[in-house]
Write a structure and sequence with these properties.
Layout: E1 3-8, H1 12-20, E2 27-32, E3 35-45, E4 48-56, E5 64-68, E6 74-77, E7 86-93, H2 102-108, E8 123-125
Organism: Thermofilum pendens
Protein name: Cren protein
Length: 126
Amino acid sequence: MAGVKMIRLKSIRDLVHVLGASQVPLVHHIQVDSSHIYFVPIVISSDSSVVYYYASDTPLEGSFLLFDSFTGEVSVSKSWVSDSKYMLVPIVEVDSQNIIPEKLLLRELGVGKRGPRASPAPSTQA
């Protein structure tokens, strides 16, 4: 992707809100240095894309994000939840990728700037 634009979000909840407008409700996770990056790539045109991402010092403890459509709360689950009040978002573990150049990721994470902003971790459901 030639024109990758990065948008850093304040919380994982913001990333779930982006997914509400996305065609594919799926979050990618990759570790870069000591940061855990959760991202959603969105293709705008054949040569341009936007990557919305959330960076944290600690990994989320689970494989699914749960958005409670009644309360607006976001939680993390280690297992599949079959409840119509939740939008279930799988977190896929990325082994390697070529969507975001690693140099760009490291620059976005703030080498010499402030580090990853960590917001309170979502609650975990078993």
